[in-house]
TrEMBL record:
Keywords: Gluconeogenesis, Glycolysis, Isomerase. Its EC number is 5.3.1.9. The lineage of its organism: Eukaryota, Viridiplantae, Streptophyta, Embryophyta, Tracheophyta. The gene is PGIC. PROSITE patterns: P_GLUCOSE_ISOMERASE_3 (PS51463). InterPro entries: G6P_Isomerase, SIS_dom_sf, SIS_PGI_2. This is Glucose-6-phosphate isomerase.
């Protein structure tokens, strides 16, 4: 399954984003827009970190990979001519696959520090599993979380809403927290090539 034909598909996916990056106008250029969002969040709004949250276990090593590439490349405190920057640059990248992160640090993202989030979802599962007596398969349940988390970050819940749902008021979360969602049709070699190239050009 990992012969040259697979590598060719991976390279073709990366090449498609290379071409998009070099030809698309800035207002519709995916990597340019993502890069500008990072500059805005870090240098203008002062948010020091970014969470990379793929909703598939197959991308469990994506966040550490982007962490290395991004923090190594953009981890500078001076301009190209050696002058100290008068603003923060570069971000602390971290992340975990979807529900792993939900059980470890999403509370902080919703209620504590503002941490811009990159949610990455896959439309078609590689291996959907239906459990006995379950109407919804595991992938559909995962995707429900993928759509719900950015929604919750954007809109939050007031104490009054929580009270009407019989939820403790200390679980209030304000909303208005930045996130973006990337939704891939499938997770094959071509799409992985695209995803890595999107982040590379963003950096």
């Amino acid at each position: 399954p990992y012969g040259f034909s697979v590598i060719e598909k991976f390279l073709a996916g990366a090449r498609s984003i290379d071409q998009h990056f070099h030809s698309a106008p800035f207002e519709s250029n995916i990597s340019v827009l993502l890069g500008l969002l990072s500059v805005w969040n870090v240098s203008f709004l002062g948010y020091p970190a970014r969470a990379i949250l793929p909703y598939t276990q197959a991308l469990e090593k994506l966040a550490p990979h982007i962490q290395q590439v991004s923090m190594e490349s953009n981890g500078k405190g001076v301009s190209i001519d050696g002058v100290r920057l008068p603003f923060e640059a570069g971000e602390i990248d971290f992340g975990e696959p979807g529900t792993n992160g939900q059980h470890s640090f999403y509370q902080l993202i919703h209620q504590g520090r503002v941490i811009p989030c990159d949610f990455i979802g896959i439309v078609k599962s590689q291996q959907p599993v239906y459990l006995k007596d379950e109407v919804v398969n595991n992938h559909d349940e995962l995707m429900s979380n993928f759509f719900a988390q950015p929604d919750a970050l954007a809109y939050g819940k007031t104490p009054e809403q929580l009270q009407s749902e019989n939820v403790a008021p200390h679980l209030t979360f304000t909303g208005n927290r930045p996130s973006l969602s990337l939704l891939l049709p499938s997770l094959d070699a071509y799409r992985i090539g695209q995803l890595l190239a999107i982040y590379k050009h963003r950096i």
